[in-house]
Amino acid sequence: MPRELVYQTLEMEKPKRAARDLWALPWAGIHYPEQLKKIRSDFTSDIKSVSGFSKKSIVENGTDWEEGIYTDAWGCEFVNIQRGVIGEVRNPIISDEDWEDLSKVHFPVEWMEIDKPQINSYCKENDMFTLSGFCARPFERLQFLRGTENLYMDLIIKPDGMIQFIKKLHQFNLDLMEKWAQTDIDALFMMDDWGAQNNLLINPEIWVEIFKPMYKDYCDLAKSYHKKIFMHSDGNILKIYPHLIEIGVDALNSQIFCMGLENLKQYKGKITFWGELDRQHILVDGTLDDVRKAVHSIKENLWTDGGVIAQCEFGAGARPENVYEMFKVWNEII
């Protein structure tokens, strides 16, 4: 059973095979539909995010993966220039340094009306390990609303308006996560991309002061409802790995090859590495032998009767044969 397999992986109780999870971006389905279909058929994922079956935000407009302008549930406008890849916010809607011009920010309260009976029915009828359909992402949401450069300056200056808005945003996340925690899902989900190629995007002291307490609240909420909590963060996040372990993150999806397996080995057995195979180089221009060597290296450095989920992102530039080979090798070595 996929659900049982994932729990065994998280508890490091010697699963019979590596738990699998494929992240296929729309780009993959557009460019390699048949290959993607075969990967999904031969190596079914064990993890699934569940829809909240809730109403659509009153301000959302367009499609996030299509070319053109997409307005998300909060009112942020994304400019998409490539089909299958999400765009960027060009004109942040909070332009005031004092954070007083919040009239255009729409908190998507519609999301609070999740259909608990339908979610529970889905979980009961499906044997996959289920994640909440809502993902708390405070740092990225602040960037979308304020703009990355502006936010970085604000995090140093700490205007009172920003601090008050963060409290409101955090409470919204907590309230919605609690609604999800009251369903039969297996885990809550949160994410924020914190790393550049070689280091953290902001001063670690600021991260500990402002963001760590929020993530701890999310973890504590999950534990209070006997749920697991999963997190995703791109880039080199070595400096916050011990903090995420300390606050109770169960599984962390991160760019382990960006940070170096030798540097992450110290955390073996303390957290489950939710992938991922290198999508910057190996999945894009590596050989099948490179893929095999990479998977074996992950197992040798990070596997401990579990503690690793066979996961990769099939996104722009990735070769379908390399994605297929990754799952094939995991099946062979566990």
Protein architecture, described:
The protein has 334 residues and is an alpha/beta fold. The protein has one domain: Alpha-Beta Barrel (TIM Barrel), CATH 3.20.20.210. 44% of the residues lie in helices and 15% in strands. The strands form two sheets. The protein has an eight-stranded parallel β-sheet. The protein has a three-stranded antiparallel β-sheet with strand order 3-4-5, with no helix packed on it. Strand 3 and strand 4 form a beta hairpin. The longest helix has 22 residues. It is globular, with a radius of gyration of 20 Å. The protein starts with a helix and ends with a helix.
Helices, strands, pairings?
Blueprint lengths: L1 H10 L8 E5 L1 H6 L1 H10 L4 E3 L18 E4 L5 E4 L7 E2 L26 H10 L3 E8 L1 H9 L1 H10 L2 H22 L5 E5 L12 H21 L3 E6 L7 H7 L3 E4 L1 H4 L1 H4 L7 E3 L7 H4 L2 H15 L5 E7 L5 H14 L1
Can you count the beta strands?
Answer: 11
Based on the structure given, which CATH architecture is correct? Answer: Alpha-Beta Barrel
User: What share of the residues does DSSP label as strand, in percent?
Assistant: 15-25%
CATH class: Alpha Beta
What share of residues is helical?
40-55%
Q: Based on CA inertia axes, which overall geometry fits?
A: globular
CATH level 3 topology:
TIM Barrel
Side-by-side strand order of the widest sheet: 1-11-10-9-8-7-6-2
Please give the largest β-sheet: 8 strands, parallel
**Alpha carbon gap, first and last residue:** 16 Å
Radius of gyration: 20 Å
Structural class: alpha/beta
Mean pLDDT: 96
Number of domains: 1
Indicate the low-confidence ranges by residue numbers: none
Count of helical segments? 14
Order of helices and strands: HEHHEEEEHEHHHEHEHEHHEHHEH
